[in-house]
Design a protein that fits this description.
63 residues, alpha+beta, two-stranded parallel sheet, elongated
Length: 63
């Protein structure tokens, strides 16, 4: 799909990433309005890293 500026969106959706910051929330609002204006679906993405877990006690290193 090509928009009026010649940009292409392979999925035909507006995609925005959010991390909870004020800037990302503003971006999400803009993306929602843009998706509505274009008549496209909106995909909101977020990601996180899980902290490493300690090993279970039965796998303790041997001296």
């Amino acid at each position: 799909m090509t928009d009026a500026r010649g940009s292409t969106s392979p999925s035909g959706a507006v995609v925005v990433g959010v991390d909870g910051s004020e800037q990302s929330l503003r971006a999400a609002h803009w993306a929602a309005a843009e998706a509505y204006r274009r008549g496209l679906p909106l995909s909101v993405l977020t990601a996180y890293s899980m902290p490493p877990s300690p090993p279970p006690p039965w796998t303790a290193a041997t001296p």
